[in-house]
Design brief:
Strands 1-7-4-3-2-5-6 form a seven-stranded mixed beta sheet, with helices on both faces. Helix 1 (about 70-85) packs across helix 2. It has six helices and seven strands; from the N terminus they run E-E-E-E-H-E-H-E-H-H-E-H-H. With about 190 residues, the protein is α/β, with parallel strands linked by helices.
Length: about 190
Amino acid sequence: TLQGVEIRREWFEFVPNLPQGVTEQCRVIDTAWTLKKTEKSDPDYTASIGSAMAGGWLYLVEPFKFRKELPDVVAWIENEKKLKPRTRGMAQGAGEKISKQFLDRNAIPVEQLAAETIDIRLRLTAFIAFASRGLIKLVGDVSRWQAFLDEIVAFPRGKHDDLLACCAGITQMHGLIFNATPRATLP
């Protein structure tokens, strides 16, 4: 059941660099912004993780997580697209639709991911399956991945899952989807 979903820190190996010959590089962005931050509010973050495939391994690179206003979020995405043309995926939610309008006006193409309305625990099924088998490597040292590690330890009870939402999009972008075989019904 979805109740027992958890992600364990020990499933991930840290490596210093991407290997030679990586393919299918992409970056997924999950946007968010605050209009009037109050002391009691704890809004979502804009988050982004890059990824690459090599030798059957999924490598995650350059996690980002920050809070900024809409114009700054859009400017950051534009800059990412210029620096990393393979920035391909953006989750499809209300905030992303508004961000995409701004990006479209500036001719910055970003591919939409159509999974935002599905429970994140379900969207993470493929990611968790790969991670639990040790097939996902984190590029960089532990300090670079601290926000990600904090999210996985708190999941699914934590308030924020912004970087994990990117991971759900990454498996979609790379086509790492497990299709459950329908069970036969007994008479």
